[in-house]
Design goal:
alpha/beta; 3-stranded mixed sheet; 6 strands; about 170 residues; elongated
């Protein structure tokens, strides 16, 4: 979904409601800020970007500054939408996921986190958005889940899209 925001109005409550709805439905989001040719300087563009990024539920979705009147960045916006769609549909093999899981477990960054949760196995169970099931020895806390998702998204290049993870007890 492309959320079109006017640079004159900035980010409104309605824009936030739409973004939240799109993300809660598991859809990919690209934010386009129109009428950027009317902004006096790049500091105003930076301010709009910082304002959007301040809402953590939006995440790292791409933000495009464009001018529909002058066709500035419209082609780049369409190319980005195709790229985001491909990420949203991405399938990662179970073997690659479990190699990454071993690397994550062995790098020491998890030692002492969340009272020594043991990561047993991971599999992707769906796309649109990418959905994963992680088998563990005990249920992790929310801060551990966020950490795990950030690492997973970073390693597999999914930082621009939202993912779903479920942690299940291994038998």
């Amino acid at each position: 979904a492309v959320l079109l925001i006017s640079s004159e109005d900035g980010l409104t409550r309605q824009d936030l409601n739409i973004a939240n709805f799109v993300i809660s439905k598991g859809k990919a989001l690209v934010i386009a800020v129109n009428k950027c040719d009317l902004l006096p300087s790049t500091t105003h563009k930076d301010h709009i970007t910082r304002t959007i990024r301040a809402y953590s539920f939006i995440g790292n979705c791409p933000i495009f500054m464009l001018s529909a009147l002058h066709s500035d960045s419209c082609t780049e916006l369409l190319n980005c939408c195709l790229h985001i769609y491909n990420l949203w549909c991405k399938k990662i093999t179970t073997a690659a996921l479990n190699r990454w899981l071993r690397l994550l477990s062995n790098d020491g960054s998890l030692s002492g986190k969340a009272n020594s949760i043991k990561l047993k196995y991971i599999a992707q169970v769906g796309t649109k958005p990418a959905s994963f099931v992680v088998f563990v020895n005990k249920k992790p806390k929310i801060n551990y889940i966020r950490y795990f998702e950030r690492e997973l998204k970073s390693f597999f290049g999914l930082s621009s899209v939202h993912i779903k993870t479920k942690f299940r007890m291994a038998r």
